[in-house]
Structures are given as C-alpha cells and as structure tokens.
Amino acid sequence: xxxxxxxxxxxxxxxxxxxxxxxxxxxxxxxxxxxxxxxxxxxxxxxxxxxxxxxxxxxxxxxxxxxxxxxxxxxxxxxxxxxxxxxxxxxxxxxxxxxxxxxxxxxxxxxxxxxxxxxxxxxxxxxxxxxxxxxxxxxxxxxxxxxxxxxxxxxxxxxxxxxxxxxxxxxxxxxxxxxxxxxxxxxxxxxxxxxxxxxxxxxxxxxxxxxxxxxxxxxxxxxxxxxxxxxxxxxxxxxxxxxxxxxxxxxxxxxxxxxxxxxxxxxxxxxxxxxxxxxxxxxxxxxxxxxxxxxxxxxxxxxxxxxxxxxxxxxxxxxxxxxxxxxxxxxxxxxxxxxxxxxxxxxxxxxxxxxxxxxxxxxxxxxxxxxxxxxxxxxxxxxxxxxxxxxxxxxxxxxxxxxxxxxxxxxxxxxxxxxxxxxxxxxxxxxxxxxxxxxxxxxxxxxxxxxxxxxxxxxxxxxxxxxxxxxxxxxxxxxxxxxxxxxxxxxxxxxxxxxxxxxxxxx
Length: 507
Ligand code: AMP
Ligand code: MG
Hints:
By secondary structure, the chain is an alpha+beta fold. It is built from 16 helices and 12 strands. The protein folds into 4 domains: 4-198, no CATH class; 224-353, no CATH class; 362-430, no CATH class; 447-494, no CATH class. The radius of gyration is 23 Å and the shape is globular. The protein starts with 7 loop residues before the first strand and ends in a 21-residue tail after the last helix.
C-alpha cells in the first residue's frame, strides 16, 4: 500500500471528451479534440530531490517512486495524455497551444475528491511546437517552492508533489540573447482538481467546433461544478459568474501578498480560479505597481502588478466569448463582467480592511488606501516588511517601520507620520492586530531567496530548498530564528541579477 499503483486511477477526461486517434507523434495541429495520448519520456538517472509530505498524505502515498515521477514508465491504471487548448498570449490570439511539456498521468479517486497528477518537463507531445518538452532545475524549483508557499499563504493554487532531477542536461538560452547553456533537467509532479483552462474552451470556439465545446463544458460542469446546470442561458451565465468570482478572489489574494504572475495569458488561467503555470512570476519588494518580473513583457508591462485585476476581467471576457456560441441571447454576458468587477472590489476592500486592521472597512476608507499607495511609492519601500511592521506598530510614528526603507537616509518621515496618525485615529489606537498578522505575511518567496536555493541546488545542495520549503509553510508566524536571514529586503547583489530582477519565459 501507499505506492502509485495502489491508488484508484480514473480517466474521466479521456472517457468523456473527444481525443486524438493517434498516440504520441510529432508536434502538429490536432483539430477538434481535447487531448492526445502520450507517453512520458524515459530518463537516465531520476533522483527525487523535493517531496511534499502534505500532498503525499492527501493522496495516500507513502513511497516516492522517483522513476515514475520523473517520467520513466507508468503504473497500471495510468493513461497519460497531453491536453489541447488555445490561448491569447499577451493580448493576441495564438490558436493551438496545449500541453507542450506537461503530461497528465491520470486522475486519482480519493474518498472525498479527485486529483489530477501531471508531470511538467517529461518530454515532447503533439503540442510541443518547436520546443523539447523538457524543464530545467531552476524553473522546477521555482514552481515547486512557490506553489506550496502560495497554498500556505491561503492563495488558491495548484500544488506540487515532487521534484525529480532527470540526470540529463537541457539547453536553454535564459535571456534569449544568443548564449545557450546546458542546465540540469528536472520534472515536477503537480496536482490539481483539473488543469482545464480558459483556453481549453477558446480553442473549440475558434475552430467553430461547438459540439466539442459543449461536450467539454458538460464534462467540466458535471465533475467540477456539480451545483451548476448549463441547460439554458441563465445557467451558463450563473456558472460564468462563479468562475469570474473565484478568479477575482484569487487575484485579490495576489494583490494582498504582493505576487505578480507575469504571464496571465488565457491559457494560463485555471477554470478553478487557481494560480497555475509558475513561470517568470515575482514578488513585489519595492512597492511599485508598475513592476513586472517578466522581461519578455518589459516594454508594454501588460502583466504588471497594478494591472492584474484588469487583466483578470479581460480574460474572463474571453472565456465568456468562448461559450457565447452555446447561448441564444448573449446580452446577459455583460452581467458576468459586472459581477467580476463588483466581487473584485468587495474582495479587495475586505483585504485592505484586514491589512490595515480596520474591522468595518468602508468606502470612505478608500482615501486612506489611496494615500498609502502614493506614500509607498515615494521612496523605495519594501511591501512585505512595511505591512508586517505596521501590524506590530505600538505608536503612530515612522521609527517602527524604518526597516522597510531601502535607504535609511532618505525617509519621508513627516509624510509617514501624518499618514500613520490618520490611520491610528481611524482604528482608535487599536488596530485589529490578529487580522493584520493573518493578512500580512512575514515571509514570501522573494526572487533572490529562490535564486539562493537554486544556486545551491545546482551544486547538489538542496538544503536551502528544504529550509525555504519549511519556512514558507508558516508564512504568518514570527519564526524569529529566521528574521536575520529571510525577513530582509532585497540585497544589493540581487538588484540586477538574472533570476532575481530579470526573468524570462525560458524554463
Ligand atoms: P507558458 O507561457 O510557459 O505557459 O507556455 C506557453 C506554451 O508553450 C504552452 O503550450 C507550453 O506547453 C509551451 N511550452 C513552453 N515551454 C515548452 C517546452 N520547453 N517544450 C515544449 N513546449 C513548451
Ligand atoms: Mg502555460
């Protein structure tokens, strides 16, 4: 017991939606289908490097089978496939994308849920286009650590079970500047109720294949949204509102903790409102709403921190458009976008109330928030440290938040004292500290922290990965023994370092 082959494997997605008659094969267009059967690629020397005990327990696994989790072989019951989907990339319709380097092993039936297990980096599929279907250690560590950290921050996310190095080298040109270099190959096994995306629906509408669109939607509703019924327009709109709401809630959480996804293309939007596809993401350190970690997006900054809520709305609009052909009267789709906006404001205000310790946050408090946003941008100020120190502030003077400023010689003290005084009066000197401490994390996976873990792992030392994995299991706890090392602003060496301030989609 406790092995992968003792789990109850199902293939509901394969059984209920149309698929590619050909198994495997070269990258190609596969019109009209939702998936293609593929086999993960054998690896030379699979070694388990990171393991989520929590996910293992949830799945009932006691044994980490590194060969299978690295892509070498499958067990009875698994029926692996790559999903076909499309998407808008950076605002442009890209048509067929699909799982170019993700391979689903199957769905595991548990007493109270189904969980899909998917390998990322296990080789080519019909959707790999010109790429190799592989993943490198650096991006795999970033996905493993961040998805687990997000879960513990209370942000809806896909999870990670394992990280296996393959014993093979994979060539990547990190900054796309003509300097390809070999890197250590790795495979992450990630876990979610499903990996169905907005783009999973879009592709069939773009093809004009409304039968497949309906079949996929019926499958999705039956298993993942059982309270919904899409027999008529009102039912479809109600379901879209549900998706809009979970998406708005997820993005409001991103804003609360300072997370920037970096590539909010519609193929990277989970139908479950989960954070998915960890690529060139980043965490706000200096509070700059215009910041994006993704160098590929540096010129237009479409996916910058302060724009994520609007992009969420844009993406929900694309999903609504995608299901429109199944409706008689599409006018009612506008209500989905209104719902998104109203819910986002509601979640955002509720989060601001918690971050500032204001129990009865009202519209009139928005001025306080606007002024705070301006002040945080006056000089380089660390978002995470500021809110954490604010949660502990004993009196409304800037001395208590000094650690948040990057240049201690240059603090707009007078303006801060004024704002702090205003906030202090608003909470009558008694901010709700418990709600602040539960909304303002002390530890997040800053890019330079991930980079230190990566640098060590590339030299065969996974101790920093383990340290961060454990630290970030309790991001709202003080953990004073870690203060000096990890409750810190970005060090100078990380300011312009690739992987810290600059990230690309190359992974
Ligand atoms: P992303 O922006 O990382 O979500 O990727 C966009 C598309 O490119 C998806 O269809 C991916 O499956 C595909 N892709 C990304 N990297 C690779 C790779 N190394 N090999 C094959 N396909 C890839
Ligand atoms: Mg993706």
